Amino acid sequence: MGKTREMFDLQSLNTSPLTEKGLVDFPVQPDFQYSANSPSKEILAALKAVSDETRIRLLLILSIAPLNVQEVTEVLAMGQSRVSRHLKILADAGFLDFQREGSWVYYKVKDPTVENNFQIRIFNILMSHERDLPYSVRDIEKAKEILKQRDLKTTRYFDFVAKDWENLQQDVLDPLLYRKKILQLLPDSLCRTFDLGCGPGGLIPYLLTKSQEVIGIDSSESMIREASLTFLNNPKVNFIAADLEMLPRELAKSSDAVVASMVLHHISNPPKAMKEVHRVLKDGGTFLIVDLKKHNQEFMRDNFADLWLGFEPELLSDWLEDSGFIVESVQEIESQKYFKVLIIKAKKKGGL
């Protein structure tokens, strides 16, 4: 006998005498190939990931805001190893993004307004039945309580340091380094400008050179009191104590410019704050972000109540675009100490 053939010619099988005699009556598809990375594999992995009660609970709470593993364990009242295993399954299946902040890792659901893949469609279906999901009411309340405590810790810190904040900043980074740059990027002859996270008002004298009115907004009432005393006799300056992620409704479309100077790294949910800025800006209004570039200086958590260790410029730009802004410029300033400073100028769509 000749050498045994290692592969069949499937195409010839379709026209073989066996087929002609009716002994083979099924169609053969010689071009079919199964890949470990095929869409069907991805779909099966996604369906498997959401077939577990704990992972459904994770999707729900991580849709509220980014949480680190310790915070997730508090919400679900589960051990860290168990929580970490379920988080990995959801991340591997394409449901979650994660962000490393020094020694901490924060997880969140991929943005359903940006992504439109199979995983997000499944997620949206699940969230449309939020009330029927296991432990939904309890988990939502607990997650919001965690976020409230996170923000309260920041507010208490700033209440404590309100009188000395300007001096404390200079120990790490001289504000003059970026305040003059802010003036260069702001349009001239503004009617109203919001100073988001104004603190004791150190930036306000600069903003008054460009704007007829400045409104300082801060979540720390002690900071607002300090700033109010400084500008007590200035009718061009007013202050509002408010949650920066939930600004007063009456401020909608009332500002020509908003400046968020060294504030986003203190906010639990920066993208949510950006959406609020978009809401209070007039069409065509300017949004300036000044913040630290991504770093690994853990002492900033303890010494300055920083929640996020800076940001990559690409991440801030993505958040801005998702919130309805056009990013006009991204600049980076070198400092003499540990940090680099990012200044991003964005514009709300609309207007002239």
Provide a concise account of the structure shown.
The chain contains 15 helices and 10 strands. It is α/β, with parallel strands linked by helices and 352 residues long.
Description:
It is a single chain. The chain is an alpha/beta fold and 352 residues long. 41% of the residues lie in helices and 20% in strands. It has a seven-stranded mixed β-sheet with strand order 6-5-4-7-8-10-9, sandwiched between helices. Strands 1-3-2 form a three-stranded antiparallel β-sheet. Helix 5 crosses helix 8. It is globular and about 60 Å long.
Can you give keywords for this protein?
single chain, 352 residues, alpha/beta, Arc Repressor Mutant, subunit A, Rossmann fold, 2 domains, 7-stranded mixed β-sheet, 15 helices, 10 strands, disordered N terminus
CATH topology (level 3) name of the largest domain: Rossmann fold
CATH arch. level architecture of the largest domain? 3-Layer(aba) Sandwich
Low-pLDDT regions: 1-32
- The CATH class of the largest domain, by name, is Alpha Beta
User: With helices defined by DSSP (H or I, 4 residues minimum), what is the helix count?
Assistant: 15
Q: How many β-strand stretches? A: 10
Summing up helix and strand content along with how strands pair, one would put the structural category as alpha/beta
Distance between the amino and carboxyl termini: 85 Å
Strand content: 15-25%
Q: What would the principal axes of the Cα set say about the shape? A: globular
- State the share of residues found in helices, binned by percent: 40-55%
Average pLDDT, to the nearest integer? 88
Radius of gyration: 27 Å
Q: Largest sheet, if any?
A: 7 strands, mixed
Q: Provide the succession of SSEs.
A: HHHHEHHEEHHHHEHEHEEHEHHEE
